[in-house]
Specification:
The protein folds into two domains: about 260 residues, no CATH class; about 110 residues, Leucine-rich Repeat Variant, CATH 1.25.10.10. By secondary structure, it is an alpha+beta fold. The chain has a four-stranded antiparallel beta sheet, with helices on both faces. The termini are far apart. The chain is built from 18 helices and six strands. Helix 14 packs parallel to helix 16 and helix 16 runs parallel beside helix 18. The structure holds iron/sulfur cluster (2 copies). The site of one iron/sulfur cluster (SF4) has 12 residues, from helix 6.
Length: about 375
């Protein structure tokens, strides 16, 4: 009775999110191995994750916990299929850069916790350190798709997932069955082959992982495939038939200057401007330093810019202190390949103080010769 009352309450008062109840049972040995493997892979790219990070079982998050309420709020704000456009624009997920999204979801989580407290129970949001996708599948909120994302019936995979632990005696749901069937649209659409093994993502080949978490140079073989990806690649989400005809979340704003920023100005963005646009956001937390956005923007400009962007890239070579940014600018100049680009690369081949940047410049010149 309590379980049904809670679910009805959430549907009626929290924007009818994707919803499920998970047991608080331990993870399976295979789930733990997968998480450990994932941590080890990611630790090679970002200091946010350590290779020996312990995998905690759900019970360790809440004394006396008896169930986990999994909710997936609508994070579909519509798609701009004209991107990258002219001048080229990129994309950063609204929920990562717009505090309104965070506040909107937080208010709904608070509403759920208030319901539990009114009925004499505790509720605790666990915002990090818990594998939301595994718990969402366990909760029957949705099912893993072949793109390794959770997709919920009628609500697709544009979801902001949250886990609320509770000591209320809620009835766990039965996990859903497969929803992909013979479909392979995401695998066909993925530019890097990251989805070649169904239901798993080769995260080292995933452009979102590279753009957001890789704190080194983007591998050469992935740079053209990055396209206009400055932060997230949404190609497999856009390809998924289950994401067609979704209800657009119009309850919060979508600040276009943050969600679809013009790429060129990001290449030499100042500290002050980066702070003004992204300071305090989840995007800043994940990307950690502006130089990684600058690196991504330079690569995106190499893919979608034109001769008019050569001065921006020359400015990066001349003024940017970080060798990752200068190296990406050199690569992009090699892609745009105008006579101006060639002569500036030849000049900086002799004078850039960094061996890695000179190597990027040499590579760019070599590739220009071949074309
Ligand atoms: S986000 Fe992009 S690169 Fe990553 S799996 Fe999906 S389509 Fe492939
Ligand atoms: S595109 Fe097709 S195979 Fe991929 S997640 Fe969506 S339904 Fe599944």
């Amino acid at each position: 009775m309590l379980t049904e009352d809670l679910k009805t309450f959430i549907r009626e008062n929290c924007g009818n999110p994707a919803l499920g109840i998970a047991s608080i049972d331990d993870f399976t040995p295979q789930e733990i191995r997968d998480m450990e493997q994932g941590n080890q892979t990611m630790a090679a790219y970002t200091p946010l994750i350590s290779a020996d990070m312990p995998v905690l079982n759900p019970r360790e998050f809440m004394d006396g916990g008896r169930a986990i309420i999994m909710v997936g709020y609508n994070a579909f704000f519509g798609r701009d299929h004209a991107l990258p456009g002219k001048p080229p624009h990129g994309e950063i997920i609204n929920a990562f850069v717009n505090q309104e999204c965070v506040d909107y979801n937080a208010a709904r989580n608070d509403t759920i916790i208030a319901f539990l407290e009114k009925h004499g129970y505790s509720g605790m949001l666990v915002p990090a350190g818990i594998p939301q996708k595994i718990l969402a599948a366990r909760a029957g909120l949705g099912r893993y798709g072949k793109n390794a994302l959770i997709q919920a019936p009628e609500k697709g995979s544009w979801l902001s997932l949250y886990a609320i632990f509770t000591d209320a005696p809620l009835e766990p749901e039965t996990p859903l069955t497969d929803m992909c069937g013979d479909c392979e649209q995401c695998k066909k659409a993925c530019p890097t082959g990251a989805l070649n093994v169904p239901y798993t993502c080769d995260i080292e080949r995933c452009l979102t992982m590279q753009a957001m978490y890789n704190k080194g140079p983007i591998p050469l073989e992935l740079r053209e495939k990055m396209g206009s990806c400055i932060a997230e690649c949404c190609i497999c989400m856009d390809a998924c038939p289950r994401n067609k005809n979704l209800a657009v979340n119009t309850a919060v704003s979508m600040p276009l200057h943050l969600v679809h920023p013009e790429i060129a100005p990001l290449v030499n963005i100042t500290d002050a401007e980066f702070d003004r646009l992204f300071g305090g956001t989840f995007f800043e937390f994940l990307i950690m330093e502006k130089k990684y956005l600058q690196r991504n923007a330079a690569i995106a400009l190499g893919n979608h810019g034109g001769p008019e962007h050569v001065p921006v890239l020359i400015e990066a070579l001349e003024t940017q202190e970080d060798e990752l940014v200068r190296g990406a600018a050199a690569w992009a100049l090699g892609k745009i390949a105008t006579p101006d680009a060639r002569s500036i690369l030849e000049k900086f081949l002799k004078q850039d103080p960094s061996e890695s940047v000179r190597s990027e410049i040499q590579g760019a010149l070599d590739r220009m010769k071949k074309h």
